[in-house]
Specification:
The complex is a heterodimer of chains A (about 220) and B (about 190). With about 220 residues, chain A is an alpha+beta fold. Chain A folds into two domains: about 15-65; about 70-215, Domain of unknown function DUF1254 (Immunoglobulin-like). Chain A contains seven helices and nine strands, in the order H-H-H-E-E-E-E-E-H-E-H-H-E-E-H-E. Chain A has helices at about 20-30, 40-65, 70-75, 145-150, 160-165, 165-170, 200-205; strands at about 85, 105-110, 115-120, 130-135, 140-145, 150-155, 175-180, 185-195, 210-215. In chain A, strands 1-2-8-4-5 form a five-stranded antiparallel beta sheet. A four-stranded mixed beta sheet of chain A has the order 7-6-3-9. In chain A, helix 1 runs antiparallel to helix 2. Chain A starts with 20 loop residues before the first helix and ends with a strand. Chain B contains three helices and ten strands, in the order αββαβββββββαβ. Chain B has a single domain, classed as Sandwich (Jelly Rolls), CATH 2.60.120.600. Chain B has about 190 residues and is α+β, with helices and mostly antiparallel strands. Chain B has helices at about 1-25, 50-60, 175-180, and strands at about 35, 40, 70-75, 90-95, 100-110, 125, 135-140, 150, 160-165, 185-190. Chain B is globular. Chain B has a six-stranded antiparallel beta sheet. In chain B, strands 8-7-4-10 form a four-stranded mixed beta sheet, with no helix packed on it. The chains are: A alpha+beta (about 220), B alpha+beta (about 190). At the A-B interface, helix 2, helix 3, strand 4, strand 5 and strand 8 of A face helix 1, helix 2, strand 5 and strand 9 of B.
């Protein structure tokens, strides 16, 4: 027996199994004969808590981990910082699921790491809208032609680029619409309503004039 | 032995958790659901305040959600009586639509694909629809052509109908959306 043994903890009964709290609680409940199913409750509750943690973590991680989200799907058909008309959705194939068949759509995958972007969309004869999403498909801004006028013109930039804007410039261009993106990469979706199917080709031509280019 | 049980229950727990996640992202589109008859809408999933379930569902499905500032999506998979919408029946969508700049209806199969047909008609819009004198609509979803507002169903057994209202002056922030939004009724007749 050495001096240090004074500080070591020993189980009160040397032969008793070193059981966890859960097990001991379960064993305690097991002593009451008609309560024996409760013995299973403790491990069951532990399984349920673990399952809940796995569920919450996977739900929260899904936007970041999803490999086939809209950004990934669009990356296959277009480059960054270019406006591209999406092919007409048909029963056989669609660039994205759940698109409205009554609309013509164009997308621009933005990447603001190098420079801010200027998005210009000529308003068509009918309803035209521009929507912005982060690369994790979080919608962060949308506007329609009624709010904007003849040509929808927007400056898209990240927080640093917006902070670097000279203050007097904001005054001279008061009607300039500056949108701050919460992420470096994301999607600009431009959509125009087609009133009559015979106008579809015309609306496509009009929307083809939409641009998404480096801001001066 | 003890370790084995522990590992087993751990695996069961993970499988259970991920199973619930898979069910949630395939069967729901978010937590804040607005119901009106057979229609279901998720107004907040089109905003930056989208809840984690809405964000996970959108990330998995690969769609771009309709932004609330743009429009509002309602989906129906059953009629007013709760029966699944059957493309072999004649399904009628009747009633008046809430005030909006324009609306569109689209008919899809269970997986969200349009129904192939010769006329390339996948839906109906407010610009094309024929209105009754009262301002209401009467849309028929049927496998064969019908006079008036007809959308072909290709005789699919299960259908999904999407109603989109654009530039609609709603406010769902107050939670009064359910009562103030009255959407058309869906009924089925002439089932085989």
């Amino acid at each position: 027996m050495s001096l240090f043994d004074t500080f070591t903890l020993r189980p009160s009964h040397p032969n008793a199994p070193r059981a966890g709290l859960g097990h001991r609680f379960g064993a305690l409940l097991g002593r009451v004969p008609w309560l024996w199913p409760l013995r299973l409750m403790v491990p069951l509750a532990m399984v349920l808590v673990l399952a809940a943690i796995a569920h919450i973590v996977s739900i929260l991680a899904m936007p970041a981990l999803a490999e086939r989200n809209a950004f990934a799907r669009l990356s296959e058909i277009t480059d960054a910082n270019v406006m591209t008309l999406l092919p007409e959705p048909t029963p056989q194939q669609a660039a994205l699921p759940m698109m409205d068949p009554a609309f013509v759509s164009a997308v621009c995958l933005f990447d603001l790491t190098e420079h801010p972007l200027k998005v210009r969309v000529p308003a068509t004869a009918d309803y035209t809208s521009v929507s912005f999403y982060t690369d994790e498909i979080l919608p962060f801004y949308a506007l329609s032609d009624q709010a904007a006028g003849k040509v929808i013109e927007l400056d898209l930039m990240n927080a640093d680029q917006k902070a670097a804007l000279p203050e007097d410039e904001e005054i001279t261009a008061a009607d300039r619409l500056v949108i701050e993106a919460p992420s470096q990469e994301g999607i600009v979706l431009v959509r125009a309503f087609v009133r009559d199917r015979s106008l579809r080709a015309k609306v496509r031509r009009e929307l083809a004039a939409a641009t998404c280019a480096r801001a001066e | 032995m003890r370790l084995l049980t522990l590992a087993f229950s751990f695996l069961v727990a993970i499988a259970l958790g991920l199973g619930v996640t898979l069910y949630a992202v395939t069967h729901s589109r978010g937590l804040d659901t607005v119901r009106a008859g057979a229609w279901e809408g998720w107004p907040r999933s089109g905003t930056i305040k989208a809840d984690p379930y809405a964000r996970a569902a959108v990330a998995r499905s690969g769609e771009l959600p309709l932004e609330l500032a743009d429009g509002l999506l309602f989906l129906a998979t059953t009629d007013d009586a709760g029966r699944p919408i059957d493309g072999r029946c004649e399904t009628r969508i009747t009633g008046t639509l809430p005030q909006a700049r324009l609306w569109t209806l689209a008919v899809m199969d269970e997986d969200g694909r349009f129904i192939p047909n010769d006329a390339e008609r996948y839906g109906l819009t407010s610009a094309e629809a024929v209105y009754a004198a009262t301002g209401g609509i009467d849309v028929r979803l049927a496998p064969r052509a019908r006079p008036g507002n007809w959308i072909p169903t290709g005789a699919r057994s299960r259908l999904k109908v999407a109603l989109r209202l654009y530039d609609a002056p709603f406010s769902f922030a107050s939670g009064a959306g359910d009562a103030s939004t009255v959407l058309p009724h869906i009924t089925q007749e002439a089932c085989p």
